[in-house]
Structure prediction request, 195 residues.
Amino acid sequence: MEKLMTFLLVLPFGFALAQETATTHDGKKVLLFEDYTWQYAYNLTPDISNDCDDYVGFLEDKSVVSGKVKVSVNTIYFGDHLEGNGMEVIMIEDIEHVLIDIQVDGSEPCFGPGQFGVFTFKGDHSIKLENIIAKNCNGQAQFLIPLKNKQDLNRFSNHELTNVRLFHEDGSAQQEIDETAAKSFKKTMQCMLGR
Prediction:
């Protein structure tokens, strides 16, 4: 009986620790594990803020006239990061473009010239963008939207994404996007564009 009581006392603590979450000083959520390791909790619902400082920061860049570029301060994750499948997205804005950089987890497909991505929004509207980087077999693709392309930028900043499909040498990688990731992506784009 004593061994059973000890087991029952330890069991809930072990489960609680395995599922414990914490928030870092800069507001990111992390998962804490029994072996004292941690990882970012991308699949937990983050707080959606109205403060653009929570979405966009600035980096010095000598290659642009202003000397600064806007960058998304958080990686937006489409899919389940903890399961290792999905897409990590960051965004960068210079004086002429918004760059959407996507890293596909898992199979690491090869992207190259001629490959493209289809971004689908609520209401089944979609935008097709060409990959701009040379052949890459690490699962990375990049898409540029010129700032003068108001129609596509308006779609990205005013509508929520529902699906991203990236075509590569061996087929395609597709990811449904949950509401939280879609709102975070849209808010980041709005803050990039100063809306």
Q: What stands out?
A: The chain has two domains: 1-41, 47-192. Confidence is low (pLDDT under 50) at residues 1-19.
